[in-house]
Amino acid sequence: MVGGAASSDEFLDRWRVPGEMDSHVWEERFGEDVYVPLAHAAFADALKAAGVSADALDHVIVTGLHARAVKAVKGGIGAKVGADRSQTIGNLGAADAGVALADVLEQATPGQLIAVLALADGADAMVLRTTATLAEVQAARRAAGVPTVEEQAGAGRSDLPYVRFLNWRGQLRPDPPRRPDPERPGAPTAHRVEAWKYGFSASRCLKCGFRHLPPTRVCLNCHAIDEMQPERLADVRGKVATFTVDRLAFSLSPPVVGVVVDFDGGGRYRCEMTDVDPDTVHIGQRVEMTFRRLWTAQGVHNYFWKAKPVEGSD
Questions:
Q1: Which of 143, 184, 240, 273 could in theory staple to 298 by disulfide, Cβ–Cβ 3.0 to 4.6 A?
Q2: Is the dihedral of CA 265, 271, 273, 278 positive or negative?
Q3: φ, ψ for residue 190 (rounded to 5)?
Q4: What does pLDDT average to in each consecutive run of 10 residues of the chain (314 residues)?
Q5: Cα-based torsion angle of the residue sequence 45, 49, 51, 56 in order, rounded to the nearest 10 degrees
Q6: 291-to-122, 199, 255, 281 alpha-carbon distances in Å
Q7: Model-level pTM?
Q8: How is domain 3-154 classified at the CATH fold level?
């Protein structure tokens, strides 16, 4: 960073009472009248601290929750403002400036000047200069296959029904479960099977090579006792051996798709499938494991592993 500045004022803009799902916003014209002068002041002070003019900037990032003020600042800042991806990824709140900066750094070249201006309870501005190592980092990320911000934004899903989204957000009351409520997960039990719960570790028999899920002490094939070695399967893929679609079980995203997975290298396990259209799941479908929330009971989240389709597989 070659320069930075901040400006603030005491004013009521956005607030939320503890326990409420949504925040409240004061009339937008008032917020614009307060934010814009603060943003211009912070931006000018940051440029002065960096010893550069607005014309020397190669990229400018302006973010904030007050959309009207952000738009006004962009129009009067006198510098080139970077791409606005809010129409595809929305406003990310505190992370918005960081994601926008990552987006710019993926396109920038060494020696360029980048200004970041964030509007929140005032305005914070900083001026950055890219170094010669930027090109090396960009090349390394491309070689590793790391998707860019633009690629991730373009790969977003558009098949999420709005009613389901409101259900997940707790803003719509779903139908009560048609079966008994789920029980709260026990902390002692989770601690005893830590490797299984968090690492999805199976056990392989050292005598016959049979793989067990969940892990066990006695081999189901050769009946050897305590002749096991743990194997992490969280990163091992498999295929669907059989499946069922349960429309009665309680779920925040009904229906529940239950699958039996045959893992590469051996091992079979029955689990729930996620991120899948029930009409497209089929025997032989390639899947991988993902750590997800199963349910919440008495204020305790219960996480475990679910299967999801491998992207690009049939």
A1: 184
A2: positive
A3: -65, -35
A4: 93 84 86 94 96 92 92 83 79 90 93 95 94 94 90 79 78 66 79 89 94 94 94 94 88 86 94 92 95 84 92 74
A5: -50
A6: 38, 9, 19, 20
A7: 0.59
A8: Peroxisomal Thiolase; Chain A, domain 1 (3.40.47)
